[in-house]
Amino acid sequence: MRILHVIASAHPRSGGPIEALTRLSAHLKTVGHRLDVVCLDPAGAGADDGAFGSVVRLGHRGGKYSLNVRLVPWLKTAARDYDAVVVNGLWQFHGLAVLFALRGQGIPYFVVPHGMMDPWFNKAYPGKWVKKLAYWMLVERHLLKGAQNVIFTSESERVLAQSAFPFYKSREAVMVYGTAPPPTDYAQPGEGEQANRALENEDGERKNIILYIGRIHEKKGCDLLIRAYSDLGSECKNYRVVIAGPDDNALAGMLKMRAEELSIGSGISWPGMVTGAVKWSLMRSADVLVLPSHQENFGVSVAEALGCGVPVLITKKVAIWEEVVADQAGFADSDDQAGVSRLLRKWASTPAATKAAMRFNALACFNNRFHIERVAQSYVDIVGRTAMTRGSLQHDQAATD
User: Which of 39, 60, 261, 395 could form a disulfide with 68 if both were Cys (CB 3.0 to 4.6 A apart)?
Assistant: First the structure.
């Protein structure tokens, strides 16, 4: 099958959606399927193009809305060559473009919201909620209603979406989500040393690492992690926090100031965005990964940590927390300072033998639930069923003609 994915940005800095899509495409490519991408990044923007059949970057205007009217005629022409189209994410121009371009063409399309219909955003950003409601009435509800399926990455995401906006109606599906296992040969000359610098304190001393990897964004709860680390007091002397990720909203500076005010600045490293060997070196070196999010429809970094055999500390706003806890691969608590403090304190007091067992459980949890092979099968079951039907019809029509 040949599928076109439409996404606002295919840059790795944009977070989990493109990361998971890259891994999925690379796996499906090995069994003969082709996933292409069209996005509104400027030409030359970074992406792992080798995982896809092609990546087309049209550029954009209009700030975060990513406006580029050229996407509409491009889609009208190009979409005919695909068995199906998949829209990744909401609230930006690419969804409107698909709605306009595919109208009346008989080309099936799917929508993956990636958590963007979670009611948490409405409460956290009431000003944006008003604008979103207007856009919902004009565009998004029609996009979702016309989709072959709206694909959610967890059952909890699907349930939450039903109460987010009025007049919501769609055919829903829940897809197994996850990522590829970590590379076994990940160390490159010089990159291991870069990771090691992030793991050492000013005296070069190595400590147990509490690792956060992801975008530095308000919804991720990095401020909770800093305050909870301070709450540990003398219990944190054997631990160091590493907060790794891109800072697109200038939030890191304020967080660093807060850490200094709490007299814990020297115990936190900020290596910025990490990729490749540096990322995997950090992940494998961590004692535990923490994701203190207020909202997370999945959490790719959680799956990656589990794949490295690293237990996780997550809030109950991370959609897969019940699976993690059930498999004894980590702990979960509330998304507030008290909850994250309890998580860190519980981990610090966990016996070494229990931690060792949890590392084994973490890898088993990944293999049984979030391995890319299960993701690919689920994707083919949902998208492929429609794509294959369309492909067969096109073949029959061509034979008739």
Answer: 60
Residue given tokens 């306009």 in the structure block: 100
Output Rg (C-alpha) for the chain, integer angstroms.
22
The structural domains of the chain, ordered by start, are: 2-180+372-400 (3.40.50.2000), 191-370 (3.40.50.2000)
Enumerate the H helices of 183-335 as residue ranges: 191-199, 222-231, 252-261, 276-285, 300-307, 321-326
Residue 266 CA from chain centroid, whole number:
29
How does pLDDT run across 150-201, given as a tens digit for each residue?
999 999 999 999 999 999 999 999 999 999 999 876 555 445 555 555 555 5
Cα three-residue angle 9-299-128, rounded to 5 degrees? 60
Segments of the chain scoring below 50 in pLDDT: 189-190, 395-396, 398-400
List, as one string, the DSSP characters of 127-148.
HHHHHHHHHIIIIIHHHHHTSS
Q: Is the dihedral of CA 60, 61, 62, 68 positive or negative?
A: negative
Distance CA 181, CA 383 (A): 23
For the question of whether the overall pTM of this predicted structure is more than 0.90, the answer is no
So what's the pLDDT on residue 398?
Answer: 46
Question: In whole angstroms, what is the distance from residue 349 CA to residue 225 CA?
Answer: 17
pLDDT of res. 391: 55
Distance CA(110)–CA(28), nearest Å, equals: 18
pLDDT at 189: 43
